[in-house]
Write a structure and sequence with these properties.
- The complex is a heterodimer of chains A (about 350) and B (about 160).
- Chain A is about 45% helix and about 15% strand.
- Chain A is of the alpha+beta class and about 350 residues long.
- In chain A, helix 6 packs across helix 7, helix 7 packs across helix 8 and helix 10 crosses helix 11.
- Chain A starts with about 25 loop residues before the first strand and ends in a 5-residue tail after the last helix.
- Chain B is mostly helical.
- The radius of gyration of chain B is 23 Å and the shape is elongated.
- In chain B, helix 3 packs across helix 6 and helix 7 runs antiparallel to helix 8.
- Helix content of chain B is about 45%, strand content about 10%.
- Classes of the chains: A alpha+beta (about 350), B mainly alpha (about 160).
- Chains A and B meet through helix 3, strand 6, strand 7, helix 5 and helix 6 of A and helix 6 and helix 7 of B.
Chain lengths: ~350, ~160
């Protein structure tokens, strides 16, 4: 079993709900795709080459300030549950964790993590430099990721083309190699059925959305990851500005939708959020999906001040720790355990009892 | 217009079918269309590269000097066909080996072929002096003219003028 206590904050500092606009935005993540010059991309390289990349990059990381004390996880030497755990913490992609349909982990697949930044190794690209902050914090996250990119770039030769920019295995990432994602909670737009219009609008301005776990994941609990679609033709700051402007607009729409709901259907909304709270507090079995949807309802209730005394931090914690691998590890069972829904409900009750004031 | 199927929601997808030489048009809402297995416009977003690659295969004019199938990258041995199938290139050199079709693809994907972000060569070096930058712009201009990207060439020329 891996020891996540090695990480200063367990790698989940982003869920403390301390960041800007954290009542709507859970986290901001930015990654930069980089490849080493003169080496074939991951799809065509061998086990030996991947080991070599790992040792070259790790050496550079140990000489850097930002990753000097990074914790290294070799995904290819971890059990599936542990890999899933890292994925549920948003520290590694599904692909790197080998959780795709074929369920195989690539040799050399690793991640280095220190505080809020890190680098995935032997992912689709040789390096995926990444940063994860609490709340809506594009500039702060980019500043850190950019610093790490400079530090590593001084020690490693990156594949760079004078016209195309940073070269990546997939041309969808070429140029800046930058993908910024804002994980945002939009129950108001979902309930008022405005969400598809908003998402279509975002597609028209070059943004895309994904589910809670990024690429290829479903939308659960009304959480959407909004991110830039293109990586070439604009500078890093232009990409971030554009995404930032659009996210702020979506946040405004969400606030308006909530006002409309409270004005036109206050009784229905009040019933909905308290019903969600009641189920979380008293249910004896909860599937992951049901828990996510109920947490979404309570989060909405807290956001519009209908439910007092529940901290966003508590809700974020429940969001992370009720995921299958987290719960399984905490309970010492397999993530496929048939009792998991019962254990989940018990865990949620315990947290709510100990962390929530006795009003309402 | 309401959906032909559920008669409740607004029809957003208009499907023309030809069955036994009879043309019928079906107006569907997003949900009924999804049930019928018709992909909605928002569904396409999920695999941008797939649809772009498909479109590329169809739209490449015959005159365009696309690499002949079987032509491979001198560095990694990958072919453009390999890329079409996997969506991933073999090595950094592939960007030179398959430059022409890739340039077209980048334009479709990103609306541009020119990196405007941070430049790797700048890293750790002294701040780029004007001379280096204009030389770089000149090189980009030369490339733009060569590849008949006149819109970009005009933009680069304007930027050079400002700098000089």
């Amino acid at each position: 079993m891996i020891d996540l206590s090695l990480l200063t904050d367990g790698g989940v500092g982003w869920l403390d709900a301390s960041g800007p606009s954290s009542h709507l935005v859970l986290s901001t993540r930015i990654r930069l795709a980089r490849n080493l010059a003169g080496r074939v991309f991951q799809g065509r390289n061998s086990e030996t080459e991947r080991e070599d990349i790992l040792s070259v990059v790790e050496r550079a990381a140990r000489e850097s300030v930002l990753l000097r004390q990074a914790t290294k996880f070799r995904l290819d030497r971890l059990e599936r549950t542990d890999r899933q755990l890292l994925h549920e913490r948003h520290l590694v992609s599904k692909e790197l964790a080998g959780l795709d349909a074929d369920g195989r982990v690539r040799s050399g697949a690793s991640v280095l993590v220190q505080d809020r930044i890190g680098v995935m190794l032997n992912e689709e690209d040789h390096l995926r430099i990444q940063g994860l902050h609490s709340g809506f914090a594009l500039e702060a996250t980019y500043a850190e990721v950019d610093r790490l990119d400079s530090e590593l770039g001084q020690r490693l030769a990156f594949a760079f083309h004078p016209e195309f920019g940073y070269l990546t295995s997939c041309p969808t990432n070429v140029g800046t190699g930058l993908r910024a994602s804002v994980l945002i909670h939009l129950p108001g737009l979902v309930l008022t059925k405005e969400i598809s219009k908003v998402l279509q609008g975002l597609a028209q301005v070059g943004l895309t959305f994904r589910g809670l776990y990024g690429e290829g994941s479903e939308v659960v609990g009304n959480f959407f990851q909004l991110s830039n679609q293109t990586t070439l033709g604009s500078s890093e700051h232009e990409l971030l500005d554009h995404l930032g402007k659009m996210v702020r607009q979506v946040m405004d729409y969400e606030e308006q939708a909530r006002q409309v709901l409270l004005r036109d259907a206050p009784a229905i909304i009040e019933d909905k959020v308290w019903r969600a709270y009641g189920l979380l507090r008293y249910a004896r079995a909860l599937s992951f999906e049901e828990a996510m949807n109920l947490l979404s309802g309570v989060r909405l209730g807290v956001g519009v001040s209908l439910i007092p005394d529940v901290a966003m931090y508590t809700l974020n914690k429940l969001l992370v720790y009720t995921q299958p691998a987290h719960l399984a590890v905490a309970e010492g069972v397999a993530p496929t355990d048939a009792d998991l829904p019962i254990r989940r409900a018990r865990f949620v009750r315990k947290v709510l009892e100990s962390e929530v004031g006795r009003r309402g | 217009m309401s959906c032909d199927q559920c008669r409740e929601r607004e029809a957003v997808i208009h499907l023309t079918q030809i069955v036994n030489e009879q043309v019928t048009t079906l107006h569907l809402c997003e949900r009924c269309a999804a049930e019928k297995g018709v992909e909605s416009p928002s569904g396409v977003v999920k695999t941008p590269l797939g649809s772009f690659l498909a479109a590329m295969g169809k739209n490449l004019p015959e005159t365009e000097p696309a690499p002949r199938s079987g032509e491979t990258c001198g560095r990694c041995g990958g072919s453009f066909q390999d890329f079409r199938e996997s969506g991933r290139l073999g090595c950094p050199e592939c960007y030179r080996s398959f430059e022409i079709p890739l340039r077209e693809l980048l334009r479709r994907l990103h609306g541009s072929t020119h990196h405007m972000g941070e430049r790797y060569a700048d890293r750790g070096a002294a701040p780029a002096d004007g001379r280096v930058e204009t030389a770089d712009l000149r090189e980009q201009l030369r490339l733009a003219v060569e590849t008949e990207n006149f819109e970009l060439a005009a933009e680069l020329r304007d930027r050079l003028r400002v700098m000089e």
